[in-house]
Design brief:
Blueprint (H helix, E strand, L loop, with lengths): L2 H10 L4 H10 L4 H7 L20 H19 L22 H25 L15 H6 L7 H16 L9 H21 L1
Helix pairs in contact: 2-3, 7-8
Amino acid sequence: MSSTLLMRATAQCRPSAFSLFAFGTNLPSFRAVAVASSIPNPMCTVQLIQTREKSKTKQREHRKIKKAARARRIELGIERTKPQNYIPKDAPVVNSISREELSRESAEFDKTASEEMKSKIQSQGELLRFGFTGLEMSDRVRKLFELTNGNQREIIRAQKQRGMELFQRRPGDTGSSAVQGAMNSSFSVLCELLNRHG
């Protein structure tokens, strides 16, 4: 151990009487040094502090050049350059639609969509049991084939058929996403109603 390292260690750690005695007896060559210079606790960790000079890198030099050029431009009265594709905050937006126009358009669209749906619902005929929907019959016979006299399976089948006809995009369409979404929502509503009132 060098004397400077030993002195640094003694300055950083506080020795105890037991550690001095143990350190001196274990190392006979340092026994006199241990007693004289109060050797620290061997369990104490010595931290060697390293200092490093920061060298000037190319990036710092480049930054310094840019700063000087900016100061020169300010002295000449030239404005700071804007970044590429810069758009000022006060610039008007081209082809922008105001919120009032958007709300008015959405209200008009909702109105036309609801009118179409109402016309589709009104055009649907009354569903009868066993597929007798399009036949002409007397009122007595019609009452026999109404869904109120049918079981749950017939009611669900008729509602599926009505939902497919209502939301189809073309005749006979059963697999489009609009039909499937409408069918799932109508089934969930039907199940809730049956659980409440059934």
